[in-house]
Predict the structure.
Amino acid sequence: MSANETQSGVTQLIQSLVEAWNRRDSTRFANLFDADAHYIDGDGRWLKGRPAIAGLCDAAREAVSIVEEPSTRFYGDVAIATFQWTTVADKSIGGIITCVIIKKGTGWSILVLQNTDFR
């Protein structure tokens, strides 16, 4: 897999994450994560596994958008991606997400995601 294909795969994963969130598609959202993934939300709750992570999407209230292209570093089959998000309705509400993404077969999966909300 070329460097461009690798970058494209991770970028697509992040775009799919935002799209699933905005559609409130909890199944698709959860399936972007590894089966035993961890998600630390903006309030500091530590969710473990896809079922708990899916519940976040069910409770979502507002659509979000990515502020700028994610910053991504690659270490073989592991990527660290950081990006800023805001709500579509109120740009003062948002946060920064950092995730550890691993290559699974020909695709990518989120292993750990931490969201830090703006305060």
Remarks:
- The first helix runs from residue 3 to 23.
